[in-house]
């Protein structure tokens, strides 16, 4: 089973997303969005950015 994005409303009434691995562990969380559709767009942006992304090491 692949990982999944979950979109939810937080206690403050904002919408957020979290990316869960196939084992259910949260591996990434998004910022707060004003609307559910904006949170969905945030998920899509992460999917696009991650496609073909490389891993680099930094000193910071």
TrEMBL record:
InterPro entries: DUF1508, UPF0339_domain, YegP-like_sf
Gene3D superfamilies noted in UniProt: 2.30.29.80
Protein name in UniProt: DUF1508 domain-containing protein
Superkingdom, natural source: Bacteria
UniProt domain DUF1508: residue ranges: 10-57
């Amino acid at each position: 089973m692949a990982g999944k994005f979950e979109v939810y409303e937080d206690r403050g009434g904002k919408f957020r997303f979290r990316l869960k691995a196939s084992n259910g562990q949260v591996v990434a969380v998004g910022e707060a969005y004003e609307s559910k559709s904006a949170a969905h767009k945030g998920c899509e942006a992460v999917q696009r950015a991650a496609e073909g992304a490389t891993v680099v090491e930094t000193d910071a």
